[in-house]
Write a structure and sequence with these properties.
This protein is an all-alpha fold. The protein has a domain of about 170 residues: MetI-like fold. The protein is about 65% helix and about 0% strand. The protein has 15 helices and no strands. Helix 8 packs across helix 10 and helix 10 crosses helix 12. The longest helix is centred in the last third of the chain and has 31 residues. It is flat and about 95 Å long. The two termini are about 45 Å apart. One of its GO terms (biological process) is amino acid transport. Belongs to the binding-protein-dependent transport system permease family. HisMQ subfamily. It holds the Pfam family BPD_transp_1. This is General L-amino acid transport system permease protein.
C-alpha cells in the first residue's frame, strides 16, 4: 500500500513581526557599533575621543583661523607685532592664499600661468573617460593621454615653439611637479614592471639574469640614492658637452625605482595563476605572447590591483624627496616659503604642512577609492 508522503498545511502559519528597515539608523548603530559588549566599549571610547579632540581642531583650523592678510601681521599676536589678540592661536590660511600660485606652479611666470592650467584641463578631460569602464573608444583615449598629451604638454609648458617664451624646468614647482613626476612614474612603471616580471620568469638565462640584477640592485638602495645617481653621477658618464635636463633625470630615476617594485608585484600575480590557465591556452594553440596578453596578464593584474595601487600611492608621496636634489615639489615649495620673513609666525609652518598633508590625502584617498571600485567591477569570477 502506497503511503502519502505529500505535506499539506492544515492551518495558517502565525504572523511574524514586520522586519526592521535595513536603512534605519538604529539598526546600523546596533549592527556596526554596538553589536556586542566589546564593540560597544570601543565605540564609546572612540566617541569620547572624538568629542574631546574634534572641537579644538575645528576651532583652530576654521573658527579662530586667519583667512585674509598680506603679511605675517594677520597671523601674529599683538605681542609678536601682529593684529591678533594675545593668547590667540589659529591656522594661518592667509599664508596659503598669498602663496597659492607658487604652491600650485612654483616660480612659473604669472603671465604664462594659462599654460599649466590648460594642460591640467586637458589631462582631466582625458583621464575621466579613461577611468569610466563603459566609456567608448578606450584605445584612442589611452593614446591621447599617454602618448600625445605628454609630448604636447612638454612643448606647451617648456615653450620655445608656437611663439611661446621658454620657461626652464628650474622654474617649475609645486603641485605641478608632483603630478608630472607621479604621472610619468606611474605610466612608465606599469609596462616596464610587466616586462621585468616576465623577464625574471623567462627561460632565457640572459634575460632572466639581467632582469634579476636590475630588480635586486634598484630595490637594494633607497630612492634618495637613485635620485643622487640620476642628478649627480649620470652627467659624468655622458660625452663632453652633452647634458640632460635635471627634471628629466628625476623622472627617469623615479620611474626606474618604482618599476623594480612594480615588477615584483606583477610577478606575485603571475605566480598566483594556476597551471591550468597556461595549459588551457596551449590547448587552444595560443603562443607565449598571446597567452600572456589574452589569458594570463589580465587575470594576474586583477589579482594584484591593491598592491599596484599601493605602489602608485607610495610613489606619489615619495616624489617629495626630489627636493633633496634642488627641485621644489608641493611639499618642497611650501617649506621653501617658510623662509619668507614677511610671513614668519608661529602658526605659519604647521598650517602649510597641514595643507600639504591634506592635498596628499585627497589624491591618495581618490586612488584608493578608485582601486576599490575597480576591484568590485572586475570581481566577476567570485560573485554568487
Amino acid at each position: 500500500m502506497a503511503h502519502e508522503i505529500a505535506y499539506v498545511r492544515k492551518e495558517m502559519q502565525a504572523q511574524e513581526p514586520a522586519p526592521q528597515k535595513s536603512g534605519s539608523i538604529a539598526l546600523w548603530l546596533r549592527t556596526n557599533l554596538f553589536a556586542n559588549p566589546k564593540d560597544a566599549f570601543l565605540s564609546i571610547l572612540a566617541i569620547i575621543f572624538l568629542v574631546w579632540a574634534v572641537p579644538p581642531m575645528v576651532e583652530w583650523l576654521f573658527i579662530n583661523a586667519a583667512w585674509t592678510g598680506t603679511d605675517r601681521t594677520a597671523c601674529a599676536t599683538i605681542a609678536q607685532g601682529g593684529v591678533q589678540p594675545d593668547g590667540w592661536s589659529g591656522a594661518c590660511w592667509a599664508f596659503i592664499g598669498a602663496k597659492f600660485d607658487q604652491i600650485m606652479f612654483g616660480r612659473y611666470p604669472d603671465a604664462e600661468m594659462w599654460r599649466p592650467i590648460l594642460i591640467a584641463i586637458l589631462f582631466t578631460a582625458l583621464l575621466i573617460p579613461l577611468l569610466m569602464p563603459k566609456a567608448p573608444h578606450k584605445g584612442w583615449n589611452a593614446l591621447a593621454l599617454f602618448i600625445i598629451l605628454p609630448i604636447f604638454a612638454f612643448f606647451i609648458l617648456y615653450g620655445g615653439v608656437f611663439g611661446l617664451p621658454v620657461v626652464d624646468t628650474s622654474d617649475w614647482g609645486g603641485l605641478m611637479v608632483t603630478l608630472i613626476l607621479s604621472y610619468f612614474a606611474i605610466t612608465v612603471s606599469l609596462p616596464l614592471g610587466i616586462i621585468l616580471a616576465l623577464g625574471r620568469r623567462s627561460k632565457m638565462p640572459v634575460m632572466r639574469t639581467l632582469s634579476i640584477m636590475f630588480i635586486e640592485v634598484v630595490r637594494g638602495v633607497p630612492l634618495i640614492t637613485i635620485l643622487f645617481m640620476a642628478s649627480v653621477m649620470l652627467p659624468l658618464f655622458l660625452p663632453e658637452g652633452m647634458t640632460i635636463n635635471k627634471f628629466l633625470r628625476a623622472i627617469v630615476g623615479v620611474s626606474l625605482f618604482i618599476s623594480a617594485y612594480m615588477a615584483e608585484t606583477i610577478r606575485g600575480g603571475l605566480q598566483a595563476m594556476p597551471k591550468g590557465q597556461f595549459e588551457g591556452a596551449a590547448s587552444l594553440g595560443l603562443g607565449y605572447w598571446q597567452t600572456m596578453r589574452l589569458v594570463i596578464l589580465p587575470q594576474a593584474i586583477k589579482l594584484v590591483i591593491p598592491a599596484i595601487v599601493n605602489q602608485f600611492i607610495s610613489i606619489f608621496k615619495d616624489t617629495s624627496l626630489v627636493s633633496i636634489i634642488g627641485m621644489f615639489d608641493l611639499l618642497g615649495i611650501i617649506k621653501f616659503n617658510f623662509t619668507d620673513s614677511s610671513w614668519a609666525s608661529p602658526v605659519t609652518p604647521i598650517t602649510g604642512l597641514i595643507f600639504a598633508g591634506f592635498v596628499f590625502f585627497i589624491f591618495c584617498f581618490a586612488m584608493s577609492r578608485y582601486s576599490s571600485f575597480m576591484e568590485r567591477h572586475l570581481d566577476t569570477g567570485h560573485r554568487s
